[in-house]
Amino acid sequence: MSKHSRIVKQFIDLVTIDSESGKERDIADYLLSLFEELGIEAYEDGTAEITGHSAGNIIAKIPGNSKGTPIFFTSHMDTVVPGNNIKPIIKDGYIYSDGKTILGADDKAGIAGIIETIHQLKEDAIDHDDIYIVLTSGEETGLVGSGAFQEDLPVQYGYALDSNGEIGKIISAAPSQARMSFVIKGKSSHAGVSPEKGISAITMAAKAISKMPLGRIDAETTANIGSFEGKGPTNIVCDQVSIIAEARSLNQDKLEKQIQAMEEAIMEVTEKMGGAAEIDKKQMYYAYSYTESDAVVKTAMQAVTNLGRKAEVQPSGGGSDANHFNRKGLPTINLGVGYEFIHTKQERIALSELELIPSLIKEIIKLANSK
Ligand SMILES: [Zn+2]
């Protein structure tokens, strides 16, 4: 059997195991027994109890036979919805779903790449230092698996194999994200008989939002309102509106400034109009940023060059498990693995990209060993 058909078969095995976020039990069990078959020491951490998901994170170790730089790779086991009963179809050099579901290449392409690499390391007798693998649960539901991750990984740096874009794309920076919830409270009154006795929460919310900086704030910062809920009959002045919003920035100070601007808009209007507001905010994850002189980026760039591709180093507007690993002191960047149109039923991956993932991982491993 050629290497090509082995990774494709592996990929298909993985995507046909249902693993929508929260329901990672089956794929975790599959992977634990696969690692055992491959002779790789692996275990599941205890984070399922914290996250409430049906599986925790899986940690595996490929012991080194050489002294270099110990590194790690990470991918996530969960998928977005609709991710049950996926029927992969190979057509025109791509793998698609049948159009009724996502494909789940995000992020099973990364997992398939790691598994294929394990085969090839052995077959090609490649020297390497210790390699750790972390397969997370709950990436798609706010990075909860990596957020709860507490294992001590004795590594220098690592890679999340979890970005769209062709192999060669290197996400050297990713933003912090904060989520905010605003409950604006007014006062109800009969809208026809005594509107002056009421305070409209909808009016306050609309005024506050019109004062908020939103959308693209600057090259590093964005903000968005995702939900606005205020409802009642037309003859009553609406007394409550709930707003859910987010802000992101590559720069923590700018993020905090943005959050403050949004809070102030709410406070100013509610105070002026005699209403009240409950504000809740939470930093979901923290930004990371590396330059081309940092080992984690340099190694990835050289690996891409060794494959005959052009390294495209760029920041991302989105977070990934890499954000949490960085926060825990493990320099981690995210790499493009070739999947496209993720989180849609049109999701696909080119066979040629899927086949190249293990080569990318092997080049990184070889470079880490030569350090
Ligand atoms: Zn992903």
TrEMBL record:
Q: Which GO BP terms apply? A: proteolysis
Listed GO MF terms: metal ion binding; metallopeptidase activity; tripeptide aminopeptidase activity
Q: What class of enzyme is it?
A: hydrolase
- One Pfam family here: Peptidase_M20
Q: Which residues bind Zn(2+)?
A: 343
All copies of domain Peptidase M20 dimerisation, residue ranges: 179-270
Question: Which cofactor(s) are needed, names only?
Answer: a divalent metal cation; Zn(2+)
Q: Entry cofactor note text?
A: Binds 2 divalent metal cations per subunit.
Task: Please name the PROSITE patterns in this protein's record.
Answer: ARGE_DAPE_CPG2_2
Query: Keyword Chaperone on this protein?
Result: no
Give the enzyme's EC designation: 3.4.11.4
The UniProt entry's coiled-coil ranges are: 245-272
Task: Provide this UniProt record's keywords sorted from A to Z.
Answer: Aminopeptidase, Coiled coil, Hydrolase, Metal-binding, Metalloprotease, Protease, Zinc
PANTHER family per the UniProt record, alphabetical: PEPTIDASE, PEPTIDASE T
UniProt similarity note: Belongs to the peptidase M42 family.
According to UniProt, the name of this protein is: Tripeptide aminopeptidase
The organism that produces this protein has a lineage beginning with: Bacteria, Bacillati, Bacillota, Bacilli, Bacillales
